[in-house]
TrEMBL record:
It is a multi-pass membrane protein. The chain crosses the membrane at residues 14-35, 47-70, 132-159, 211-229. It is found in: Cell membrane. It comes from the Bacteria. This is AzlC family ABC transporter permease. The keyword Cell membrane applies. It comes from Anaerovorax odorimutans.
Length: 242
């Protein structure tokens, strides 16, 4: 298979998996761009922030930080707290991204919650290059956010819209991704473990502080049950092939 054909085949295989994220990012990205515009920052700033920062939650928080008194220590601590979960994402993806060569740098940079949800559970179809399959998922998700942010910035400079309540799209997006995983039998136990860990952490630590404890609890649970999950995965795959 030639290089260009290999890339096109991987793109064709990856795109359908990113459609739910496209719909979510289209709304969220545009709302972010419009919010930036409402604070006096043009579409160029929205584009630059999305390309360089590429962190939906912290970008929304950054809108407030940009309009408040300059406090770099507070901004650093807040950014680390909000994005600390990506440490767990990255560690769990080290093995899967082995052999991706120079693409690994972009895969690491552009790993977000939604992309992690796909790349950690989806396997490339037979005959499709794994590294290009994961690259296209990551690149498409990244592009959706960047383009939508820029479009929202342009639109926000022309009209004024009440944005209150539109952030529900993010919650809806994660519900769709969870249901997509639940449809595949081999992903149901990890998904159930993740849900249970999140609920326990929410009850114990509260809505403002539960994300990091939930990620730690989830990581420990998956590591402890790694052998059982692996056996279940391979047994189900073997059953499907018969």
């Amino acid at each position: 298979m030639s290089g260009n054909h290999e890339k096109r085949a991987a793109l064709k295989a990856a795109f359908p998996h990113t459609v739910p994220i496209l719909t979510g990012f289209a709304f969220l990205g545009m709302v972010y761009g419009m919010l930036m515009a409402s604070k006096g920052y043009g579409a160029g700033w929205s584009l630059l922030m999305s390309m360089v920062v590429f962190g939906g939650s912290i970008q929304y928080v950054a809108v407030t930080l940009l309009t408040a008194a300059f406090n770099p220590i507070q901004a650093l601590i807040l950014s680390l707290t909000i994005n600390a979960r990506h440490l767990f994402y990255g560690i769990s993806m080290l093995k899967k991204y082995t052999g991706t060569g120079r693409l690994k740098y972009f895969l690491i940079f552009a790993l977000c919650d939604e992309t992690y949800s796909l790349t950690s559970t989806k396997e490339p179809p037979e005959g499709i290059s794994a590294k290009w399959f994961y690259f296209w998922i990551t690149f498409l998700d990244y592009s959706y956010w960047v383009i939508a942010s820029f479009a929202g910035g342009l639109l926000g400079g022309l009209i004024r819209i009440d944005l209150e309540g539109l952030d529900f799209v993010l919650t809806a997006l994660f519900v769709v991704l969870f249901l997509e995983q639940w449809r595949e039998k081999e992903n149901r136990l990890p998904a159930a473990i993740g849900l249970l860990c999140s609920v326990i952490s929410l009850v114990v630590f509260g809505a403002d502080n539960f994300i990091i404890p939930a990620m730690i609890l989830l990581a420990v649970s998956l590591l402890c049950g790694k052998s059982r999950l692996s056996k279940q995965y391979h047994s189900q795959k073997a059953g499907e092939e018969k």
